[in-house]
């Protein structure tokens, strides 16, 4: 806390400055106060909140539980029992050239985390998603430290953050009316956060911890969303001058997406 004094200013500093909050309960309650103003207009004639995300059927639920484990004596951070390891061939490059099976496996973590994780595997994590599906992602924090998660390529609706263990009955507490869309969400110790995402943006997108040592040591994954028609209306082609490496180096370039 600091005091700024202006030249010719009158009066002294306030004597009733409130003390800062202690713990994270204040932050949890603050999250619950964030709401769209549904009476305000948006960039188009339609008002904010005209996209009724709360009335869309959920097509897939994925729960991501973070853990810290030792692998060969070294600390690794894992998601549902797997710690992300970068392959020699970039994931999207392998997918575009049609050799993904030589680099990674799709859906190599379960949608529901194991109750007990006895061994952590080191490999790329890629979830195969369906274009234009509506997905519920639960970030379950089993640890005593606050987590922070970021989703590339999308703004999601942050519909709930609560303490304890998530279960389907918790959907009764979701904000399905005026939740704020955002890209990053916090998950408090021994708590969970739920987000809803409309997957309409094709590509290979990263979901990662915003705590950089965790990100570096494996707490990240990718979601793959392919264009069902290989159309440039859904996804651009790779640039003509893209550099290749790994298993795709020297391979003939695949045919481009159609218009």
Largest sheet: 6 strands, mixed
Which spans of ≥5 residues are poorly predicted at pLDDT below 50?
Answer: none
- CATH homolog superfamily of the domain at 24-33 and 57-225: Cupredoxins -  blue copper proteins
**What strand line-up does the widest sheet have?**
2-1-6-11-8-9
Euclidean distance between termini CA atoms: 58 Å
- CATH names the topology of the domain at 24-33 and 57-225 as Immunoglobulin-like
Shape descriptor reads: globular
Tally the helices: 3
Tell me, what is the CATH class of the domain at 24-33 and 57-225? Answer: Mainly Beta
N-to-C order of helices and strands: HEEEHEEEEEEEEEHE
Q: Give the beta-strand count.
A: 13
What is the architecture of the domain at 24-33 and 57-225 at the second tier of CATH? Sandwich
Radius of gyration: 22 Å
> On the 0-100 scale, what is the average pLDDT?
92
**Assembly classification:** single chain
Quickly give the structural class.
mainly beta
What percent of residues adopt helix (DSSP H or I)? under 10%
Strand content: 25-35%
GO molecular function, one term: oxidoreductase activity
Protein name: L-ascorbate oxidase-like protein
InterPro entries: Cu-oxidase_C, Cu-oxidase_fam, Cupredoxin
Domain Plastocyanin-like: 90-229
């Amino acid at each position: 806390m600091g005091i700024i004094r202006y030249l010719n200013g009158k009066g002294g500093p306030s004597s009733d400055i409130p003390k800062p909050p202690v713990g994270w309960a204040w932050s949890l309650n603050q999250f619950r106060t964030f709401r769209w103003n549904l009476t305000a207009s948006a960039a188009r004639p339609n008002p904010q909140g005209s996209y009724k995300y709360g009335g869309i059927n959920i097509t897939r639920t994925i729960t991501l539980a973070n853990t810290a484990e030792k692998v060969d004596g070294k600390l690794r951070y894992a998601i549902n029992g797997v710690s992300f390891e970068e392959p020699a061939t970039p994931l999207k490059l392998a997918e575009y050239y049609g050799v993904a099976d030589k680099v990674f496996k799709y859906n190599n973590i379960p949608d529901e985390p194991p109750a007990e994780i006895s061994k952590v595997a080191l490999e790329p994590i890629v979830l195969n998603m369906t274009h234009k599906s509506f997905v519920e992602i639960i970030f379950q924090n089993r640890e005593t430290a606050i987590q922070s998660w970021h989703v590339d390529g999308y703004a999601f609706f942050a519909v709930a953050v609560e303490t304890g263990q998530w279960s389907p009955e918790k959907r009764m507490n979701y904000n399905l009316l005026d939740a704020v869309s955002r890209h990053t969400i916090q998950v408090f110790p021994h708590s969970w956060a739920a987000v809803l995402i409309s997957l309409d943006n094709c590509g290979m997108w990263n979901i990662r911890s915003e705590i950089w040592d965790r990100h570096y040591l494996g707490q990240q994954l990718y979601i793959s969303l392919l264009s069902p028609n290989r159309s440039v209306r859904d996804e651009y082609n790779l640039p003509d001058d893209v550099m290749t490496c790994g298993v795709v180096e020297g391979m003939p370039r695949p045919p481009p997406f159609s218009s």
